[in-house]
């Protein structure tokens, strides 16, 4: 698919003609919202407000309740938890699981947990979806700290953003960058390319059971289309 991508037109070039992934495709496949404000990421480092923490350390602690060390430790993938304006999602998820895992002396997250704990867990989950699913980097486990500034906002502000258009723009950029001759790796939401190709290119699509019942009682009936 990458070899058939033309960055001049943002289209796949096939013998039958040209076609491309559209905003409607993103909305149907992922159920991300189209309408809303532009997703604008601010990469300016926050100022240092605590003597024993850097600006990013304090900002991450404010959002997640966790303070990543800048030196010494490494996550399960061998990456430092905090490096060059990026935080390791592997380290974050391991720490939050340890915090709520009774085997490590943690307190399980339940309906009776504090609103602060529930909010931290939800924000880290959303951060993982952003950095690990819809806007992944080649490292596959490092997320730009800039996303934290959006995650720290109100739930209404996050819900009122046009995530589908941001995902499509990032996907186009990833395909354009990967189409260069010397490039051997690609980032971005490649699962969208795969599902889109399965839906539109019959010669590579998996066989679908024609008797499959997607009635209202099916557990995936109301999920995003690509889940099915």
TrEMBL record:
> One biological-process term from Gene Ontology?
meristem maintenance
Q: Which domain of life is it from?
A: Eukaryota
Protein name stated in the entry: Aminotransferase-like plant mobile domain-containing protein
Q: Which Pfam families match?
A: PMD (PF10536)
Q: What residues does the Aminotransferase-like plant mobile domain cover? A: 1-210
């Amino acid at each position: 698919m990458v070899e058939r991508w033309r960055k001049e037109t943002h289209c796949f070039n096939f013998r039958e003609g040209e076609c491309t992934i559209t905003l409607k495709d993103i909305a149907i496949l992922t159920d991300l919202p189209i309408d809303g404000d532009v997703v604008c990421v601010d990469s300016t480092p926050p100022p240092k407000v605590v003597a024993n923490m850097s600006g990013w350390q304090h900002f991450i602690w404010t959002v997640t309740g966790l303070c990543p060390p800048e030196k010494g430790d490494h996550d399960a993938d061998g990456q430092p938890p905090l490096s060059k304006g990026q935080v390791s999602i592997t380290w974050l998820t391991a720490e939050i699981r340890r915090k709520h895992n009774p085997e490590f002396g943690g307190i399980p997250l339940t309906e009776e947990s504090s609103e602060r704990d529930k909010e931290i867990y939800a924000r880290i989950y959303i951060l993982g979806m952003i950095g690990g699913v819809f806007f992944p980097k080649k490292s596959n486990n490092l997320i730009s700290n800039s996303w934290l500034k959006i995650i720290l906002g109100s739930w209404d502000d996050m819900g009122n953003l046009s995530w589908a258009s941001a995902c499509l723009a990032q996907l186009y950029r990833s395909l354009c960058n990967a189409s260069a001759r010397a490039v051997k790796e690609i980032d971005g939401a490649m699962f969208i390319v795969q599902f889109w190709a399965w839906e539109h290119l019959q010669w590579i699509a998996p066989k679908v059971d024609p008797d499959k019942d997607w009635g209202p009682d099916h557990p995936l009936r109301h999920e995003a289309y690509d889940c099915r």
